[in-house]
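quick one before i forget lol
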Amino acid sequence: MRNEKSLKQLEKLGKETLEMINKRKEPFVELPIRSLSNTFFDEQSKTIKMGNKTSKRNFLNTAHTRKYTQTIAIASEIKKIIKEDATISIRDLYYALKHTLKGSKENLFENQGESDPLIEDIEASLGLLREELNLAASTKGVIAGNLTIKDGKDVIDLGRMGSGGWGVPSNVEPENIEIKNLDAEFVLFIEKDAVWRRFNEDQFWKKHKCIIITGKGQASRAERRLTQRFNKEFKLPVYSLMDADPWGYYIYSVIKRGSISLSYSEAKLATPETKYIGLTISDIDKYKIPENVFMKLNDEDNKRLKDIKNYPWFKNKAWQNELTLMKTRNCKLELEALSRKGIRFITEEYLPDKIKNKDFLP
């Protein structure tokens, strides 16, 4: 049976609840506070972490009764799913529990907006990813490289997946996905699907002995977890290739340091050793990028840029200079802008040059 550890923790929660009821004590669950006020940047691990503040959700407190009941119901349903050795989506879980409580006109859940945050509460309180609770998170990432993956009973050669690559599944934990026959020297995490396809079509991964992966925008948990596994288990450096805009820098930040919303699980998701390889505003002069491909910063860009400049992990001189340069020149660049210098400029000149010169931002 999969996830015995998760099952035991859920059973422990159930036994503690039953014990409180048998002793005529008010049932409650203690949960970590998942807010900005209980989040900090840990200098030792170099990741965003959740603090140790907690709150109690009490059954007999009328302000808590509904959420307490929903929390226990979700935990109970997850336990059943694990025992059945099944995996379901969080949407499936919502519908599995959507019913009218016996003897009333009250629905246990009115919408999925009620159940999703409670799943995160359970993840945080148990110290587990939802994937370890047999819940499938959404994923859109793809990967290619010289390696094979054992996915259940199937052994998949990622070097033979063609132009589409291998779709990253939601659960990439070691007990589900075994990484085999890896022949790579680094991982290249690419922001955009279109740019990833250029690297795959040009077989950059074969010429430069690397793994190329994309989250098609903001990376989901699965791509981040798999990247961390490559780094921790195989000691592969991770290079991040993003647009030269505040949003590309933010996506890089999440891969490297984690996010506030998932601070309770960043030990299993963040990869602090990640280095930023491009694109940057500094590259404009260095690679003579023509001005007619620049775009001006808008109000949302400027707000995000201001936020990023204040993040502790962007306080080093190199990043501050880059962010100031973006503000001063009032421009941003998409990776596709490099196509102005030739369709294969990014794979044949730009990135090989960056790697050769170790032209990274920390």
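fyi The domain at 142-357 is CATH 3.40.1360.10 (Dna Topoisomerase Vi A Subunit; Chain: A, domain 2).
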